[in-house]
Design goal:
phosphoprotein; 3 domains; alpha+beta; transmembrane; single chain; HAMP_dom; membrane; 5-stranded antiparallel β-sheet; Beta-Lactamase; Sensor-like_sf
């Protein structure tokens, strides 16, 4: 049968402790990674939400600036109280001069008289301004409104976004002032928003049609206005989710995380697309850092445990040689394998005391048996020993006592034999001699009875030639 390879205590303890440590660190690392991954994703989502909100704030600020201009124009016309063409033209020309970024600046009264800055003739279009969406919406709601992209009446090839404000004299609406921004200027504005590398924003109108998108094919033209859901079906989920995030491929095939925010006044939607790999890169970085820290901690812990176990169990290396000498009968072997005041030190002290006790017992037993061997049966009895070792002292004392009794009886019988021998020499009476032999036989029987309890080795006698001749 093949012997199994023996494993040392140090190896067993180290192996089990390291296994428990590895399992503990692994479980803690996995839990930490799950928690950390969720936290990083939440932080990235919060970051994306903040970026979306900041972009929305900038768009809202841009619309507010346009609204401020139209409201100032409306206030000026109300204060002037005169809607003749010269007065109105002075107002709209002044605004156009101060705001060259606006494509058109104009006013239409409730009679349909249209006045446009920069000398543009609207009458040639043959269009009644009161039937235009910007006029009807401002008149309907009675306050500043934002108009979704539409084709300009004077420049049908240009898509405009309009901010319009009604002009009142008292409680009577007398007209509407408005300013236009073309799609290109909105694109330029969106490009000024600082998005992180790889991310971008786009703008949807109140009908969720695209106003501005990095893919120019999605931008509105006089021929077509593109619905965001038609070209990006995945947006339908996020547009209906009220603040949730979705992940889907964009027009370049890149996996993006989308976030949207709706502007309350205009009903427009600002959307930001963030690369999913940006999310995952932060998670991967966190995972790598956690794993590296876990490995470093595990290595340090394993090193410390290995060193500690080796140091604590080092005295055990000296135990086996000492025990080997003890097994060979050398009870004088010094026990000095430990120096620390711990359990191993206590073990050393107790083992040393045990060896000292055994050595004393052996010396006492050796002394008693040596005296008995030399015939001194009067040697003092062995003292009682602790525990089962007391059986040794009791057995030795019992043997000594029995031998003492037997020797005494033998000595007594020897004296009697001498007396009987002298009696035989002094008488010729057959009956008396017969009585003496009977007494000798009884004495011999008594000795045989006392020695019968002992088992002896059979004695072999050599027969000489003289004995053979005798026979």
């Amino acid at each position: 049968m093949k012997n199994r390879k023996r494993s040392s205590i140090r190896r067993k303890i180290t192996r089990h402790v390291i296994a428990a440590l590895v399992i503990t660190i692994t479980v803690m690392t996995v839990i930490n990674l799950v928690y950390l991954s969720r936290r990083i994703i939440e932080q990235q989502e919060t970051k994306l939400e903040l970026a979306t909100q900041m972009s929305a704030n900038e768009v809202q600020s841009w619309l507010n600036d346009m609204a401020t201009v139209t409201e100032d124009m409306a206030t000026s016309l109300t204060a002037i109280g005169d809607l003749n063409e010269a007065t109105v033209r002075a107002v709209v020309d002044r605004v156009a001069l101060n705001h060259p970024e606006f494509f058109y600046v104009y006013f239409s009264d409730y009679h349909g008289n249209m006045t446009m800055a920069r000398g543009i003739d609207f009458k040639s279009t043959g269009v009644d301004p009161r039937r235009r969406g910007w006029y009807q919406k401002a008149a309907k709601y009675g306050h500043t409104v934002v108009i979704d992209p539409y084709a300009s009446a004077t420049r049908p090839d240009v898509m405009m976004v309009t901010v319009a404000t009604p002009v009142y004299w008292g409680t009577t609406m007398v007209g509407v002032v408005a300013v236009d921004a073309d799609i290109e200027s909105i694109q330029e504005f969106m490009n000024t928003i600082d998005f992180e590398e790889g991310s971008y924003g786009f703008l949807l109108d109140s009908q969720e049609n695209i106003i501005v998108h990095p893919n120019s094919q999605y931008n509105p033209t006089s021929e077509a206005i593109v619905s965001a859901v038609e070209v990006m079906p995945e947006l339908e989920e996020v547009l209906d989710s009220k603040g949730e995030y979705i992940t889907a491929k964009d027009y370049t095939g890149t996996e993006m995380v989308y976030s949207v925010t709706k502007l309350h006044d205009s009903g427009w939607t600002v959307a930001v697309a963030y690369p999913e790999k940006g999310f995952l890169s932060h998670v991967d970085r966190g995972i790598r850092i956690s794993i590296i820290v876990a490995i470093i901690c595990a290595l340090l812990a394993v090193g410390d445990i290995t060193y500690t176990v080796r140091k604590v169990l080092k005295p055990l290396d000296k135990i086996n040689p000492a025990m080997d000498r003890i097994m060979e009968g050398d009870f004088s072997t010094p026990i000095d394998f430990a120096t620390a005041d711990d359990e191993i030190g206590d073990l050393q002290n107790k083992l040393a005391m045990t060896l000292a006790e055994l050595s004393d017992i052996i010396h006492i037993q050796q002394h008693v048996l040596s005296e008995m061997e030399q015939g001194n049966l009067a040697v003092a009895d062995m003292d009682e020993f602790p525990g089962e070792m007391n059986d040794i002292s009791m057995s030795v004392n019992s043997i000594k006592a029995r031998f003492n009794d037997m020797i005494s009886d033998i000595q007594f019988s020897a004296i009697n034999l001498q007396s009987f021998a002298m009696g035989i020499n002094e008488t010729d009476d057959i009956e008396e001699i017969k009585a003496i032999f009977e007494e000798l036989s009884a004495e011999a029987n008594a000795l045989m009875e006392k020695t019968s309890r002992f088992t002896t080795m059979p004695t072999t006698y050599e027969v000489s030639d003289e004995d053979d001749n005798w026979g």
